[in-house]
Specification:
This protein is mainly α. Helix content is about 70%, strand content about 0%. Helix 8 packs across helix 9 (about 145-160).
Amino acid sequence: MTKKKIIDKSSALLNCAELCSRAEHCEFEIRSKLFNWGLEADFHDEIIDYLFDHNFIDHERFAKAFTNDKVRFSAWGKIKIELALRQKRIPSYAISQAIAQIDEKQYISNLAAIISTKAKRFDLKDFNQRNTVYRQIAAKGYEPSMIVREINNYISANESV
């Protein structure tokens, strides 16, 4: 078990401000850091309030950046992104805004690319293998109806080949 390093309020504030200026962080992540650093709980709210007041932390900005990164780099679906944001305790309105800003063409393109990759290992015309692919893609957070539609589109586009 690692030992918590205990720091004072001003050091914690400077460290948090530096963290937030380098990359987007949410309130939950910062609170976790403060707890792990061993800072007295009385100072947590004070530091978080300062970070919000000076725009180091912003729920909407974090949710949009997180969503954008997960769609572009990890090819996550909307369901998985929403769950991850809820785990980080982002408010519902910020999650809704972030999900709404997803580029549908990019989103469908990601799904089609995943299906194309899976089709190299699995026979999508076989019911059991198609279900395996469906479950794997559903685990990435894509909507069930969209998965079925895109798998069917892939099968019909490659039948003539």
